[in-house]
Amino acid sequence: MYAQMVKTDSDRVKSLAEMNPQERDFQERVDRGEKIEPKEWMPEAYRKTLIRQIGQHAHSEIVGQLPEGNWITRAPTLERKAILLAKVQDEAGHGLYLYCAAETLGVSRDELLALLHSGKMKYSSIFNYPTLNWADIGAVGWLVDGAAIMNQVQLQKTSYGPYSRAMVRICKEESFHQRQGYDIMMKMAFGTPAQKAMAQDALNRFWYPALMMFGPSDKDSVHSAQSMAWKIKINTNDELRQKFVDQTVPQARYLGLTIPDPDLKWNEEKAGHDFTEPDWSEFFDVIAGNGPCNRERMNARVKAWEDGAWFRDGLVAHAEKVADRRAAARVAAE
Amino acid sequence: MAALADTAAGRAALLEFLLRTGDNTLILGHRVSEWCGHSPVLEEDIALANTALDLIGQTQLWLGLAGEVEGQGRTADNLAYLRDAAEFRNVLLVERPNGDFGQTLMRQFLFDAWHFELLKALQGSTDPRVAEIAAKAIKEVSYHLERSADLVVRLGDGTAESHRRMQNALDELWSYTGELFVGDDADEALADAGVAPSPASLKPAWDAAVARVLGEATLAIPSSGYVHKGGKRGVHTEHLGYILAEMQFLQRAYPGATW
Ligand SMILES: [Fe+2]
Ligand SMILES: [Fe+2]
Ligand SMILES: [Fe+2]
To answer: Which residues 9-38 of chain B have a CB within 8 Å of chain A?
Structure first.
């Protein structure tokens, strides 16, 4: 997902009996569905895990501007251009809320960005894939925002108050993005043969990377078990992936497009689709920095940050000058 | 207004004006949108996307009305995507490359200060359609101006480096501002009919606003009075061809498709 494979610093989940009274009290509050707020006590590992998860999510939002920004100047109509600009603006806004949520845990945005730029923190694997034709912008909205929603809807119920509230706000906008993406796909799939070919090409390239967004199966993962006990993860990766496939198959059928999986079929018994797992070796390659666009994405972010240093320094210097002048004026007035 | 639209020459002048206004917002919106995801800080990514979005929205209104006045059934999209460079009427200032972030900001400020005065006058246009668009756009543009002026002040009066970059940006762009105030026969006809202010009439207020902001920013107004012009009559810099090649690619490569 936007946060994939988040580590929790634990090798197994403690039972209530093994916890000290403070930990037990905390766990019981989480179990009752209470929200944990910034000033309240929380286990250090909970705090650190949340920073990793929210930080990775925030980074994904801002790196996610790049593949879509790639088509803003080439959007085919003024209306499409306006819709795409508004979407990319929303994504930057999501990044902002999430960095703010992370800040309530005692880590600054600049610290998180430094970790991103040095490669110590990740962003979602999906944004390392290129947007090669206009239908990709439709596919990103339909599949990528669609997969993001699967994850984020459940995170509205997450135990950490600021994260949960950020998710409520973000989810509203994400469903808007998904509908707009699907609308592009409809125009393309029901358009000229060339447009339909672009739509199918986009689906071919984005299908498996979208399935990878949920991360590898985590039914046996300690990290996931701990995150689920803390309610900073509500469903397993496999549950969400299944839900996503089941939701998307009829949408693709309506478009008259073929999902690039010959083994995809309805399974009456499990009341869901059987489908082919993505190539996890490709996923691990992308995570390791070898996706098609990892270098471009990171170079673009680092360049933006470094080229902007004089701008940020200038604003800080001006604010200091203004404060000094005010102080001097106060002294003069006394 | 009735008198203006009654003659072919009057309609041509109005069309010219609408293309100029819509092309300015279209090309500047395009330039600003090139920054998406690449600006110095997240708040700027948001603000620039918002500015570009406003400008593209205004383009839809101005070029939409241009198509109506032309009466040949062309839509705003037809005008944006299917004209070549020589038919574009934007001033050269808005097609200047983004440069560093300082140049982008300075270009925005110099344009915003003019755009604001233009829209203020257009609110009183004798053509109600023009007045209506201006009334909507000025709300957005007064915010653009507030923001760009504020940043010019803070960066001009920031560090030595930010001051140097902002002064450099001003020096680079100054000779492209004069075109905003140069009028021709079309401008004169519109001014006579009370549809739009004469370009020269906007200069005193622009001069005052720019002098105030640049003064506060500790930046020196360049002494050169040279004016680069041509955009308003379709003679552009080399840059516009590339902007259009990128912007119009899909419409040109797949004619007649619906998007
Ligand atoms: Fe988002
Ligand atoms: Fe997103
Ligand atoms: Fe989104």
So the answer is: 26, 30, 33-34, 36-38
